[in-house]
Request: fold
Amino acid sequence: MPVLTKQTSGSDPLEEAFEAYQAAMSPLPSAGLTPEQVIAWRETEEGKQLTGWIQNKFEKTRDARQKEERQWNINLAFYNGNQWIRPYSNGTPNSGLLGTPQSGSNRTRNTFNRIKPVVRTEMSKFIAQKPGASVIPATDEDDDILAAQAGAQAWESVSATAHLDEEYRNAIFWMVITGTGFIRTVWESDKIDSNNPDIPGCIDYSSVKPYELFFADLNIKDLQKQPFIIHSYAKSTEWLQQKYEEVLKGASGTNVSQTTGKLNPSCKQSTIEEASYASPKTGGQDSKSYDSNLLTEIWIKPGFCPYLKQGGVITLIDDIVVGVVNDGLPYDHDEYPFVKFGHIETERFYHDSIITDLIDLQRDYNSLRSQIAESRKKMGKPQILAPKGAISASKMTNEIGLVIEYKMGMQPPTPMALQNLPQYILSEIDYILRDIEDISGQHEVSKGQTPPGVTAATAISYLQESDDAYQLPSFKNVEAGFGRVAKQTLMLLVQYWTVEHVIKVVGKEDAFSSELLSGADLKRGTDVRIEPGSSLPQSKAARQAFIMDLMTNNFVPPEEGLDMLEIGGTQKLMDILKNDKRQAQRENIKFKRITPDALIQYQMAFSQQVQGAIDPDTGQELKAPLIIPVHDYDNHEVHIMEHDRFRKTQEFEALPAEIQALVQQHVQQHVQMMQAKMLEQAMSQIPTDGTTPGVDGTVGGEEAPAFPESGGNIPPEDPTMNPGSEV
Reply:
């Protein structure tokens, strides 16, 4: 359970940081009741009524989604290859438990998992392109533009540091398996940000399994419109005992000792029910025991609970209340910290999975393949017809060259005539595979193959886009969910970054920079928009062909084109080509960090050092050299290009006039040195013997052809080039 604190303005930042550190060491949310208050509150009539209300809602929400949960179990089992399972017939049809019925001793059960390739391809499409997020300024004022720019940088830095990509992949996995995935975005005061090790607290992302979340009304599709959300999951008994040791003292509960306050393990599985279906070997039963207890958090919106009218968060271990936040939801964005990623649309809260429609086809496919395998075994070891008593059946084996002895006077044993499988059974397999492709929307082009007769690149690209467009509603859902995660992240930073934090950003063209930002810098830059279609997968081969065309036609410089191609093994080459560009980008970062005061101090220090010295070239007093110097070994053309790009950005426009003038002087010195170098090269080509380069009788070191009409090496004047001459 994260430490939930609401920050207030007007206090000293150092005091707030110290209070946050103290809160991180506390086992309870500092915005809620203290341990002593929780102990007293849960014994009151109001506390007991609220506890009973929560337990009642938990039972109802768990029963309401049994149908969906049973389907999740089947989907998960089929993905993991346990494809001969059936629901238990133990008198409880909605138990959700599955088992594998026994088969005859001579029956073949082969499993050819066609579900897993579909799931892997489905996941690859969703994680191939991460949705692109951008922050929109509140107005067109400079402060709001800077806030939006700071928000974009903070989002990139925090999402990378907190490993959002990994949790996003996990959420997509559950979305494909069950139809719905979730990401939880909270502020953890007891964790440390690697970029700011001296400041307690950081953003924490976690993928939440759909088994662990329970919702009030499954007819409400929007998660944020749910009256309450229950997050229930198993945690280690030892971990819970250590974290909530103080508040467990004197607790009265089913699984706690009233004298010692020690918890007794109550969960028999490591997580939730799906643990038994994650492996094809368990068959729906998991006998392994774990030392864990059920930790339950219920997030309640205002006005939905008669015992918590303002809303809040209640935390329980089994049936023991260990945390209370009773003054509303703890975050300023007033939203649940959960975001839903839905796959196939339904009329209810939970979305559907493509596996649901493939299960019957997978069963038929396994059955047909097993039937063919049985027929193959019978052909290899046919049944024998023999008169009773003619042979000893126990001596009949599959040994090669076996001599079969039979009684004289009886018919010799003969193989039983077998019939080949009907052709329609073999054809049925092809029909099933085509149905799987059509239902999943994954045809040959999605698997790197082309249909017969299709060779044109445009046609292949069109077929690939058609397969991707089949899932367009799912991509829209993913983009919407990703945008909400980004917005909640920025809102949490505004709330909790009361002191400046270091963010590390790798910008365009690998330009690295570190910035100092606080929540106040982001306050008017939290409106996040997701670029439509940015999550759709793109053909890498088609993109590379397009980039090659741009390079061939000189629309893109070769070094930039190689970077855009994203070909493995070119990193060393790109490092060499980008050396000058990165040097110029580092200078741009230095310009952004120079303040007018620092510039004045630099100039004053130089004046005191030279004490009115005169420049012998100009005869004027020496001026301070540029604070960021220009070197003779610089690639002036590249530097000018990168500095000009910087001067076209909003960051440059927001710089003080003195710094803008400094950049202008720096660029002008690059121009002067480049012109001087070009002039020097031109002068070096002028021969010292008075002849003119290129017309001195030699071409490339050889004697040039003579023009007899002119009497020398210079061609005669072309009269067509002089309008005043006669033709």
